[in-house]
Amino acid sequence: MPAKAKHRRSKTQRITRAAAVASAGGAALALPLIGATGAHAATGDTGAKTYTVEAGDTLSKIAEAQHVDGGWQKLYQANKDVVGSDAGLIKPGMKLTLDGAAETTAATAARTGATTHAADFVKPVDGATGTPYHSSGSMWSSGYHTGTDFVVPTGTAVKAVGAGTVVSAGWDGAYGNEVVIKHTDGRYSQYAHLSSLGVSAGQSVTAGQQIGLSGATGNVTGPHLHFEIRTSPEYGSDIDPLAYLRGHGVGV
Ligand SMILES: [Zn+2]
């Protein structure tokens, strides 16, 4: 397995190293040394590589640090039983398998009985949801929140939730830097408050393709991604974005 070959540093090796330190120095140092390495990938008795989630971890962070082929989506698929329905909600102490992440999409589909349709749509960003759709308040011109917010720091990769064509990419007042995509089913997705734009109008995009970076441009109190699904490119034609994503097999 290529993922494994790249990571020869195992827990066993680290313990051996720590034990050597312990015999040379003080035994009290051995355990804190293991805990302080910051690396938590370990090879268990079965040979399966696992990772224990730490506070502040996200699936994309782990996937990148552990070089998981297929990124956080693969990692999430392989650990859906542990993580649950929200890929943005992982808790410290969760044990994730890294080997399973190398499983092919076809194998996953065969095992879970899922159709390949699920891969057609993805979350717009790897993060937990914040202010929900239709939350009421005076700060929105329509009187309610026309999208769902994802709580992510500035600079987080924002991805097209599905294949489509970029309708607009540019400044849009309160929305700051914004991208609107028309999808093949006739729905539109909107991504607002971006710190940078990675696409331009007329461009075709695939599901999961990076279209910009999240930020805090426009009318915001802090960095986040404001995400809408609309029946037209215009403001006010919004529908429930999470229901839309779930309808396309996305765990949000
Ligand atoms: Zn919002």
Structure description:
The protein has eight helices and 14 strands. The two termini are about 30 Å apart. By secondary structure, the protein is of the alpha+beta class. Residues about 1-40 and about 115-120 have low confidence and may be disordered. The strands form three sheets. Strands 4, 5, 7, 8, 9, 11, 13 and 14 form an eight-stranded antiparallel β-sheet that branches. Strands 1-2-3 form a three-stranded antiparallel β-sheet, with no helix packed on it. Helix 4 (about 60-65) crosses helix 5. The longest helix is centred in the N-terminal third of the chain and has 14 residues, at about 10-25. It has two domains: about 1-115, no CATH class; about 130-245, Glucose Permease (Domain IIA) (Distorted Sandwich). It is about 25% helix and about 25% strand. Strand 7 and strand 8 (about 175-185) form a beta hairpin. The structure holds zinc ion. Zinc ion binds near residues 145, 147, 149 and 226.
Strand-helix topology:
Elements: H1 2-5, H2 11-24, H3 30-35, E1 41-43, E2 49-52, H4 59-65, H5 71-78, H6 80-83, E3 95-97, H7 105-112, E4 128-129, E5 148-151, E6 157-159, E7 164-171, E8 177-183, E9 188-194, E10 196-197, E11 204-205, E12 210-213, E13 225-230, E14 238-239, H8 241-247
Antiparallel strand pairs: 1-2, 2-3, 4-5, 5-13, 6-12, 7-8, 7-11, 8-9, 9-13, 10-12, 13-14
Helix pairs in contact: 4-5
The structure holds zinc ion (ZN).
The site of zinc ion has 5 residues, from loops.
